[in-house]
Amino acid sequence: MQEPIVLQNLTKVYGKDFKAVDDLSLTIKPSSFVGILGPNGAGKTTTIKMLTNLLTITSGHAYLNGTDVSSNPKHALGGVGAVVETPEFYPFLTPNETLEYLGAIRGMPKIEVKRRSKEVLELVQMTEWSGVRIGKFSKGMKQRIALAQALLHEPTIVILDEPTSGLDPRGMVEVREVLKELKKQRYTVFMSSHLLNEVQEVCSEVALIDHGKLLAYDSVSSLTSKIDTKKLEIRIADQVRGDAMDKLRSFPGVQYLNIVNEQQFFIDFAGDEQAQADLLLKIQGLGYRVVSFKESGVALENLYMSLIKSSR
Amino acid sequence: MAVTSTRQLPSDMSQIVTVARYDIFKHLRSRRLIAVFIIEAFILALMLALPALLNQPYPDDPAQFVQSVLYFTFTNILIILGATMFAGDSICSEFQNRTGYLVFPNPIKKSTIYLGKFLSTALIVLLIVTVWYWVAIIAGAIVTGDVSVLAIESYGLAVLYALAASSIGFLISSILKGSTGALVLTFFLLFMIIPMFDLVGTLGGVEPVPSITYQSGAINAILTTPYPQSYVMTPNETNGLPFNVYFFYPSVASSIAVMIGYIIIANLAGIILFKRREMVG
Questions:
Q1: pLDDT at res. B2
Q2: Which chain B residues are closer than 8 Å to A77 by Cβ?
Q3: Taking 50 as the threshold, does the pLDDT of residue B1 lie above it?
Q4: Which candidate, A225, A165, A149, places its Cα nearest to that of A198?
Q5: Chain-chain contact of A154 with B106 (C-beta, under 8 angstroms)
Q6: CA neighbours within 13 Å on the CB side: how many for B204?
Q7: What percent of chain B has pLDDT over 70?
Q8: What is the pLDDT of residues B102-129, one digit of tens each?
Q9: Cβ neighbours of B104 in A, within 8 Å
Q10: Lowest mean pLDDT among A121-125, A294-298, B246-250
Q11: Helix or strand or coil: residue A246?
């Protein structure tokens, strides 16, 4: 089977020598949900913009379903649905009219546009707004309509650029639910994000990039299995004592201890689940009444930070 | 739900029509078109009623009737206004308003988007010019009992000028970043800047043949019988002129050729610039 997305030595140079994307090569397998992860300015959006023909490619190639985006963008984008940045809509059109317009551009018969519009607006929970002019919509509502239009023509590839960017917490949860639905439906999804928890929650594979270069590309489970240090957040009902903290610092597996306030501290801990259970017992053994003892942040975070640091 | 493969994409021509259809839809829902038609209706009503209000007779000749009602300066302003409002920000607004992020990642060539938008603008300005002329032509037919062929020829030239002016608006829109700048530049370029060069050329005795605004003079000249010819007034004892004064009139043929030239060259340049333009920021 043809690989849906192939990037070959993709490079984007601005001005004389600023490389926003530097010799990036990546092959995305069919039906995979790939997150492209990196700090601000890493080259995520530039990569996506080159893939969707919004930016010209300085050198290298980007193929969508086997077609070169640079030489035949119309054909390459035929099977693609994309949400890049937060697109704006024509304010005088309603979601239904917008979907009709984009459906016509993509060659969908009217009856199919009507059927799919109903389905995708239902998916993004915008059915009741389908006849209202988009000019009145909030950013979150527009983002959901953007997702709807990307899925309208049942594309083989969905490209999303920070799909939860700028949304309130509720909007983020709702969009993530849509993304999880896409995962179930076996779309090939290529999504950029700088939110580690989001990537870990919805993606099956991750490409880590910084300064336009690929640092790592593997499945989420494979990458997280390489991480042996986790961050633990501990809240106690008593006051933190210096002598007890010193004892904790010397406990096997404790690599770093950070006291946040009088009743809360973080521990960078390397060890298996048994060792983690022993640590909890140790803390209780020091006379502390533990209110909560949990992993903080996401497993990708440490790997991400170490890779980013070593690339700089 | 199954994820389907790529479908048969529509032809470029079909997509041009789709883009034009929705662009016209946009214009119909916008206040701009209503504003232009209100201005048009007001001027037409005023010019048609003015002789009656002033107890002046209407011209007997249908061409003169149309000339008196449309009055070239108003025709010129209306066409420039139309080109500004419906072409001036057509392309740059896709970048400035970020609607390009919605449309460009679709299986459609940028040249197709450009041509679809131009087709929409062409139809809108055609409608404006058609209403403008045909109200006067029909009123002339009612008053004089005859339809002027010259007025219809003038209408044809006005349509060409409207398309050429719109093409310049599209070119400016493909170059400039902001809508306001593009709208202002389109208007002043056609209304003041190019006519100033025409004036300087004329004063120097050089016929400004390549100028679009100079060539638009044929729209009015064709309504005059006989067709006015260029001439020069040389200083003599009776007129007291200090230097030669030139009066140039574009021929219909040169007017048509230059207008078509503008339509082709401005749009070709506009398409190339639009295709090269990136969606940055």
A1: 40
A2: 105-107
A3: no
A4: A165
A5: no
A6: 9
A7: 98
A8: 999 999 999 999 999 999 999 999 999 9
A9: 52-54
A10: A294-298
A11: helix
The proportion of chain A whose per-residue pLDDT surpasses 70, expressed as a percent, equals 96
Encoded tokens for A138: 């909030």
Q: Which domain CATH number covers A284?
A: 3.30.70.100
B19-A78-A120-A125 Cα dihedral, nearest 10 degrees = -80
- In tens, the pLDDT along B176-194 reads 999 999 999 999 999 999 9
pLDDT at A74 over 80: yes
Task: Determine which helix (DSSP H) or strand (DSSP E) holds A217, and give its type and residue range.
Answer: strand A213-219
Give residue B125's domain range. 12-276
Within a domain: B61: yes
What mean pLDDT is predicted for residues A68-81? Answer: 95
* Whether A93 and B22 lie within 8 Å, measured CB to CB: yes
CATH of the domain at A177: 3.40.50.300
Percentage of chain B modeled with pLDDT above 90: 76
Please give the residue that has the higher pLDDT: either B126 or A125.
Answer: B126
Same domain, A24 and A119: yes
Is residue B1 one of the residues assigned to a domain?
no
Q: Are strands A80-83 and A157-161 parallel, antiparallel or unpaired?
A: parallel
B156 in any annotated domain: yes
What's the pLDDT at A49?
A: 96
Q: Which of A102, A86, A56, A79 is nearest to A160 (CA)?
A: A86
From the list B15, B105, B108, which residue is nearest A54 (CB)?
Answer: B105
List the domain range (segments joined by +) for residue A303. 229-311
For A:32-91, CB contacts with B below 8 A are 49, 52-56, 65, 73-80, 82, 84-90
Q: Look at A54 and B6 and tell me if their CB atoms are within 8 Å.
A: no
Domain count within chain A = 2
For the cut 60, the answer to whether the pLDDT of residue B48 exceeds it is yes
Q: Could you give the CA distance from residue B271 to residue B266 in angstroms, rounded to a whole number? A: 9
Q: A249 and A188, same structural domain?
A: no
Can you read off the two tokens belonging to residue A281?
């017992």
- Answer yes or no: is B244 within a domain: yes
Average of per-residue pLDDT values in chain B:
92
A154 touches chain B (CB under 8 A): yes
Statement to judge: residues A212 and A266 lie in one domain: no
Same-domain check for residues A259 and A233: yes
Please say which residue of A196, A220, A244 terminates a domain: A220
C-beta atoms surrounding B234 within 10 Å: 9
- Same domain for A209 and A235, yes or no, is no
Contact B105 A84 (CB under 8 A): yes
Q: How many domains does chain B fold into?
A: 1
Given A184, A202, A220, which residue is the final one in a domain? Answer: A220
The residue with tokens 């050429």 is B164
Query: Which amino acid type is present at position A225?
Result: S
Mutate to test the interface with B, among A106, A145, A162 (most CBs of B within 10 A): A106
Most confident range, picked from A181-195, A198-212, B92-106: B92-106
**Same-domain pairing of A168 and A20:** yes
What's the count of helices (H) and strands (E) in chain A, helices before strands? Answer: 11, 14
Judge: A86–B276 Cβ closer than 8 Å, yes or no. Answer: no
Q: Please judge whether B278 and A78 are an interchain contact, meaning their C-beta atoms are less than 8 angstroms apart.
A: no
Which token pair is B156? 């044809």
pLDDT in tens, A250-286: 898 898 888 888 899 999 888 888 999 999 999 999 9
